[in-house]
Write a structure and sequence with these properties.
The protein has two domains: 191 residues, NAD(P)-binding Rossmann-like Domain (Rossmann fold, 3-Layer(aba) Sandwich); 111 residues, UDP-galactose 4-epimerase, domain 1 (Alpha-Beta Complex), CATH 3.90.25.10. Helices cover 42% and strands 16% of the residues. It has a six-stranded parallel beta sheet with strand order 3-2-1-4-5-7, sandwiched between helices. Strands 6-8-12 form a three-stranded parallel beta sheet.
């Protein structure tokens, strides 16, 4: 029986992955870890812990007979540049604790990498699975180091750890959280609440993106995949749709009048160091990955969900 622990359970991905896991495996088989952001209306098992508290995490694993961990705790790209030392401590220190517990308790682990692992020397169009990884942010550095670390633990200790390089994730449930691709979420929030949005990247900025439902489904499908078919033990490229900031604004304006202006800031340099499109053919071949949400479908879904959230429907 799957007994699942989710760290970072109330962040952008965790907020939607946890309910999906509860639906599939049962509420009593999913333990959510949070620390400062536990919603009062959360339905399920929740424990409070910092990711650096190894003894406390171990006690939780033993208490609930955990066999699977989705380790989502991370400081993102923009916030990571504000405090690089804290980013290293949380992103790498936390991962090392989880991996050591995985060895001790024979845990299956999911850990997310990111397109932030790439850098300005990486081919930006149709970025291949095996390519140059020379990021220019501390967040990206922790993702490259993390990929190498999980591959090492797989080879050295036989840990069943699986990973994807997430593109920008777009969702309505949680507000923008400090990532460079979060302009593609903020534009919906401000557009619906203010009728305008000042975008922090240029209108021609192209980045790979994915709607949250695809990200959650892909994550769970990877964890259920036959291990004998998995050929990548660092992190799989994962892709869905790529578009410019201006293309997104135009798509939104087909359904909702939003005055979008552009004022690039420090996010622009980060965006310019990342790919414009991703080759995820290895994931599609190895475990059957396929996205469902197009730009129009994603845009319509976001607007409908946020209108309801903001009581605008």
């Amino acid at each position: 029986m799957n007994n699942i622990l989710v760290t970072g359970a109330f962040g952008q991905i965790g907020s939607e992955l946890v309910p999906a896991l509860q639906k599939k495996f049962g509420v009593d088989h999913v333990v959510a870890i949070g620390h400062h952001t536990i919603p009062k209306d959360f339905q399920g098992i929740v424990e409070q812990a910092e990711i650096g508290e190894g003894d406390k995490l171990e006690a939780i694993i033993k208490k609930y007979s955990i066999d699977t961990v989705y380790h989502l705790v991370s400081l993102l790209s923009a916030k990571g540049e504000v405090d690089p030392s804290l980013t290293w401590q949380i992103n790498m220190g936390g991962l090392k604790i989880i991996l050591d517990l995985a060895v001790k308790y024979n845990l299956q682990v999911f850990w997310p990498s990111s397109i932030a692992a790439f850098g300005p020397t990486t081919p930006r169009v149709n970025t291949p699975q095996q390519t140059v990884l020379e990021p220019t942010t501390m967040y990206g550095v922790t993702k490259v180091a993390g990929e190498l670390l999980v591959a090492y633990y797989h080879k050295k200790f036989g840990v069943d750890i699986r990973s994807v390089r997430y593109p920008g994730i777009i969702s309505w449930k949680t507000p923008p959280g400090g990532g460079t691709t979060d302009y593609a979420v903020a534009i919906f929030y401000d557009g619906l609440q203010k009728g305008s949005y000042e975008c922090f990247v240029r209108p021609d900025t192209t980045l790979p993106m994915m709607y949250m439902d695809d990200a959650v489904r892909g994550t769970m499908e990877l964890m259920e995949a036959d291990p004998s078919k998995l050929t990548i033990h660092t992190s799989y490229n994962l892709a869905a749709i790529s578009f410019t900031a201006e293309e997104l604004a135009k798509e939104i304006n087909k359904q909702l009048k939003v005055d979008v202006t552009y004022k690039p800031d420090f996010h622009q340099a980060i965006a310019d160091s990342w790919p414009q499109s991703i080759d995820d053919s290895v994931a599609r071949k190895d475990w059957g990955w396929n996205h469902e949400y197009t730009l129009p479908k994603m845009t319509e879904t976001m607007i409908i969900a946020l209108k309801k959230k903001f009581s605008l429907a």
